[in-house]
Amino acid sequence: MQTADRLTKIPPYLFMELRKKINKAKADGIDVISLAIGDPVEPTPDSIINELCRRARHEENHRYPIDEEKGMLAFRQEVAHWYHSRYGVSLDPANEILGLIGSKEGCHHFVLARINPGDIVLMTDPGYPAYRASILMGGGEPYNVPILAENNYLPVFEDIPTDVAKKARGMFLNYPNNPTGACATRAFFDRLADFAAQYDIAVCYDNPYSEILFDGQEPLSFLMAAGAKNVGVELNSLSKPFNMCGWRLGMAAGNPDLIAAMSKVKENTDSGIFNAIQYAGIYALKHEEKSITHMLQIYAGRRQMVLKSLSKIGIFFDPPKGTFYLWVPVPHGMTSLEFTNRLFDRTAVVVAAGTAYGQYGEGYIRVSLTVPDDRLAEAMKRIEQEFT
Ligand SMILES: Cc1ncc(COP(=O)(O)O)c(C=O)c1O
What global pTM score does this model have? Predict the structure, then answer.
């Protein structure tokens, strides 16, 4: 069967390829430890599960959740409350918030809502691979903006050629950044909002790691910048802070015109989010901040464990303060892929090669801390043995 041309442009999704490789090794009886994927292994807190079960028993929640096409008003109100209490950002639940089936869905809807065929969309390199896929599926042209260690992994707007900026209609960014772990600053948000306003570029600020922070880093939202709501939307999600990746619950917030346009795309795509999940999300946002603190302690311990092991094999670096990933420089004289392959072939530890996130990912691997402590310790033991 001949499938659509648009799909041929999309590179294979990194994690699908990795999963195939891991499954094959496991089938061969190898004890593989994957540090490649950012999917917390700890369960969703019990209280959130209980709320889901309770709400799932109400038959009015079994019907299409389309009465309120932007997501339940009560969910949007809770998101507004969360944004106000965490970031000091005021949002109108009526027209500035849209419930999503995870923030990944929002990336796609942003493109369909804003980008016309042939439009340039800026994205960072290294960057989250789903942006490229969404841009290409929507008929846009991705343009890679390098983010380099010497600039704290933030884009330098002055380096983007003026003719490209003039043609760009959208831009994807995310800080705390996947894959580098870098965090943005308020001053950067101001520069981003000014740049976007100058060239009429709609910003899709993807912020699902907004709460995954270390060493006293303050939680930030792009919407804190004056003018941010004029130029874009922020995506966020319950996946990472509440170990709810499988639940598929997130939100877009910001510019009312973009929210309305994304809502129109969504209405015509999926008919909304199961109400019981939205109720559970309300409960999480209202009552489970403590579980975020708990998870951050766990990740902080794992971070230290990995940093200590890496220092034993001669890899030293000052890790950025966000996300549950470490963006690790590879040993001198090796490429990202060579190091990744050697880890896999000799230790059965899987990491993501930096180049999977773009050409500027060369020289790095990404290590995820979302594995149980004992498995991480075992992975580190194997790596130490291999490289010392
Ligand atoms: C930068 C980034 N955006 C979006 C997502 C998707 O998150 P969600 O589960 O909210 O769709 C991820 C997941 O890893 C991510 O790293």
Answer: 0.95
